[in-house]
Structures are given as C-alpha cells and as structure tokens.
Amino acid sequence: MTSMAALLALFLLAASAMSGGVQAQPLVPAVISFGDSTVDVGNNNYLPRAVFKANYAPYGQSFARHEPTGRFSDGKIVTDITADTLGFESYAPPYLSPQASGKNLLVGANFASAASSYHDDTAAMYDAITLTQQLEYYKEYQSKLAAVAGRAAARSILSGALYVVSTGTGDFLQNYYHNASLSRRYDVARYCGLLIGIFSDFADKLYKLGARRIGVTSMPPLGCLPASIRLYGEGHGGCVARLNRDAETFNRKLNATVEALKGRHADLKIAIFDIYTPLRKLADAPVEQGEDEGVPLQPDDGWDVPERQQLRLLRRCPPVRSRERLHGGVHG
Ligand SMILES: *[C@@H]1O[C@H](CO)[C@@H](O)[C@H](O)[C@H]1NC(C)=O
Ligand SMILES: *[C@@H]1O[C@H](CO)[C@@H](O)[C@H](O)[C@H]1NC(C)=O
C-alpha cells in the first residue's frame, strides 16, 4: 500500500515515539494486527477447517523465501509494509504458528484471519477466526508476553505498540450482498451502523487492555473490486456506483466514530488509514502501458475472489478495464 494518507496517519500515530536522536530503533516497539486477509500472515494455515488458505503458489512468490507464507499476496502485505516503514527487521508471526513464542513475541503478534470480518457471523460462515476470538487470543498474548519480557516491559510494549485493525469487506461481499434475510432486516445505513458499533466496542476494549495507538483501515471502494464488477456491474465493466456509495456511507460513520473515540480517550492516538481514496483513484485511472502486473492469482473460484482481489488492489494491481479481461478469469 503506497497511500500517502495512510503513511501520514501511520507517522502521526508513531510520532510521539520518535526521539530527537538518531533513529536506530523501530518507531514503535511492536505491531499488533487484527482483521481479515488484508493482514493475515498465515493464521488460516493453522485452522483445519478454514475455507480460505494461501498455502500454495503463486502466493508468496515475491516474498523473502519465494514460497507461500499464508499471506494472500504474492509479496508483502499491508502489515509488512507498515513494519518496514516503522523500521522493523522482522515481522510479527501469525499467532497460531509455532514461531509465535519466546522472543518473537516482543515485536508484536498477528491475529488476523482471511474471511474474518467485523460481524462474527460472517467469519463463522467461513470458519475464520472471529474478531471476538482474535481479542481472546490477544489477551492470551498479553500474559505470554509478560512471561517473556517481565510485567513492566510488557506493559510498555503494549502501550507503545501500533494496533492495526483491517477488516469489514467480507461483511458486505461475503455476506450482506447475497444474504436476503440480512438485507431485509437492515438497510445499508443501519448495517454500516451495526458494523461500526462492533468496531467501536472493539477499540474501547483494546484501549481498556492497554492500547494507545490504533490505526483502522477505511472500507475500500467495494464497487471497484473485479468480482463486484462481474456480479453487480450489469455488464458495464466499470465500478459499481451503488457499492462504492455503501463504502462511503461506512467510511463517514467510521470517521465520526473515530472522532468520538478520540473524544472519549484523551491519551488514545487513533487514525484512519484511508485506503478508499487511493484505490478509487487507481480504479478510475487509465491503465498505463508497461505497468507491472505482478503474478496472476488463482482463477475465479467463488467468494474468496473479492478478498484476494482486494489484496491485488492493495498491491497496486492495475484496474480491470474491460469485460474481456474479466472473462479471462481474474485479471493479472
Ligand atoms: C445471513 O446473515 C446472518 C447474520 O450475519 C447469518 O447468521 C446467516 O448465516 C446468513 N445466511 C446466509 C444464507 O448467508
Ligand atoms: C474526519 O473528516 C474530517 C473532515 O473531512 C477530517 O478533517 C478528519 O481528519 C477526519 N477524521 C479522521 C479520524 O480521519
């Protein structure tokens, strides 16, 4: 993700950790991540029943050892780039992996799970780790960290850490848009309200548990994801305006809620990593000649496509311009 706004938000969150001197240490002691495939670094590989796993090529081809890591990308994902930007030399391991132990816990932990979402029901439909369970794992992590680092050091790591929350796309694409009982019960505004309420509770709980720096991603332009264009685009090949409006509704509510959280907790630094704006610009821009198209992902095989595509977009995938490219399966 190369969004300037997102990077600015990141530095805003990290700024108070910077000293005047030479920058040898990472800007924050640890990065702790929650969410879906946009930030899953391999937890789903440890779930026997999870529907979505990234444990096969071409996933991981451009990553350190050129092999699948469980990341839903052929290279780095948002949390990796975040960690690089903050000056880390290693990445927090997936919490369910054997590597999440001992000194490795000092740089943070990653609880994210592909196909997870704000609404636990959505995650449960795909046997992903629900956000509620991710928080339970985080509590467990706190005691493990205290055992490794000592209580005082653990407290300072936990309050200095950057907490990343990146999820929610699945609540729309993997649930709401094809769930008649859900969309009868809630119109889009109320559904966004429900999801934002879950985020707000989650952020309050993190705060109570010691978090003081939280970054949350905005909803991406749902209508520009290739699977959305195929399913809801009515053959026009362009972004689906209705779905983008839904994302904007969500993002407005997210903005208000983040402002409210700031108001409630004076010592909480919280910012939105705006991924909507840069991805929307990218989708609206003409495809440039010679742009690196990266490694093609799997052919279209169902509901996991939107999440994977989201990842492709996050990795600066060129937008789909024609139905032909769509009919060739997933674009490159
Ligand atoms: C519809 O959504 C509800 C609430 O999220 C969920 O419990 C249910 O399983 C979903 N049904 C279908 C058919 O997807
Ligand atoms: C919310 O929106 C206002 C107006 O666009 C902006 O100034 C503010 O920074 C936004 N808040 C967050 C948390 O992004």
Automatic annotation (TrEMBL):
<dbReference type="InterPro" id="IPR001087">
    <property type="entry name" value="GDSL"/>
</dbReference>
<comment type="similarity">
    <text>Belongs to the 'GDSL' lipolytic enzyme family.</text>
</comment>
<dbReference type="GO" id="GO:0016788">
    <property type="term" value="F:hydrolase activity, acting on ester bonds"/>
</dbReference>
<dbReference type="InterPro" id="IPR036514">
    <property type="entry name" value="SGNH_hydro_sf"/>
</dbReference>
<keyword id="KW-0732">Signal</keyword>
<protein>
    <recommendedName>
        <fullName>GDSL esterase/lipase APG</fullName>
    </recommendedName>
</protein>
<dbReference type="InterPro" id="IPR035669">
    <property type="entry name" value="SGNH_plant_lipase-like"/>
</dbReference>
<feature type="signal peptide">
    <location>
        <begin position="1"/>
        <end position="24"/>
    </location>
</feature>
<dbReference type="GO" id="GO:0048046">
    <property type="term" value="C:apoplast"/>
</dbReference>
<dbReference type="InterPro" id="IPR050592">
    <property type="entry name" value="GDSL_lipolytic_enzyme"/>
</dbReference>
<dbReference type="Pfam" id="PF00657">
    <property type="entry name" value="Lipase_GDSL"/>
</dbReference>
